[in-house]
């Protein structure tokens, strides 16, 4: 192996090798991921585009440890997901990743600061420390003036910024986002993408996002394309 090759492998923080996933309806098999392999270096904004049904969310759900692969190797920041037990996956979800959803998944009757601090609090951090960290995260996404507002009192863009604050509050290594701008107007979408770029450049958090938006899909450091359960560019 050349030095150059060694260097690129050692700096890869997402390594996916020969991943397969099939869903079944009764006896009928639907292969969704077909021998997916790729590697991503650290501190990158990665976009993933592809036609509806091509397997993007399935791949993201596997990286999020929401779904498991049928076979293959999945190594994310040193966490080997394939074959990991539930305890290891819980620690991975708590420490290594933050998730951002298209429809925010915030508690509608809790304030922004409670939405962001709750996961920390539930993981055993004291309420005062959790709230201090949540305030910092909300300040980072430009919502210091909205910490006591509930999602019901916020715009879509503000709600997505709260969910980004929740995703970064525990200082994860990787944000996984499924259509994070799919429910937003163009101004709010731009702000969300700018925030993700700041996560990469200022906080050293990698971002892996699925999008249907061509412009966003071209704007990453790495722009992957999926077709029929395969990554067709790397
Ligand atoms: N839990 C499941 N059980 C059965 N089939 C599933 C399951 N999850 C996804 N599928 C099927 O797998 C295929 C790929 O779904 P997936 O959500 O990964 O595609 P996608 O590329 O993200 O599509 P979209 O852009 O429409 O969100 C679809 O045909 C879907 O119906």
Structure commentary:
The structure is a single chain. With 234 residues, this protein is of the alpha/beta class. The protein has one domain (43-70, 91-231): P-loop containing nucleotide triphosphate hydrolases (Rossmann fold, 3-Layer(aba) Sandwich), CATH 3.40.50. It contains eight helices and ten strands. The longest helix has 18 residues, at 186-203. A six-stranded mixed beta sheet has the order 6-7-8-3-9-10, with helices on both faces. Mean pLDDT is 93; it is low at 1-10. Bound molecules: adenosine-5'-triphosphate (ATP). Adenosine-5'-triphosphate is lined by residues 23, 32, 50, 52-58.
User: How big a fraction of the residues is strand?
Assistant: 25-35%
Name the poorly predicted regions.
Answer: 1-10
CATH architecture grouping = 3-Layer(aba) Sandwich
| Assigned CATH superfamily | P-loop containing nucleotide triphosphate hydrolases
Comma- or semicolon-separated keywords:
single chain; 234 residues; alpha/beta; 4-stranded antiparallel β-sheet; 37% helix; disordered N terminus; binds adenosine-5'-triphosphate; MacB-like_ATP-bd; ATP-binding
How would you summarize the topology of this molecule?
Elements: H1 3-10, E1 12-25, E2 28-41, E3 45-49, H2 56-63, E4 71-76, E5 79-80, H3 86-95, E6 97-100, H4 112-122, H5 127-140, H6 156-168, E7 174-178, H7 186-203, E8 206-210, H8 214-217, E9 222-227, E10 230-231
Helix pairs in contact: 4-5, 4-6, 5-6, 6-7
This protein binds adenosine-5'-triphosphate (ATP).
Adenosine-5'-triphosphate binds at residues 23, 32, 50, 52-58.
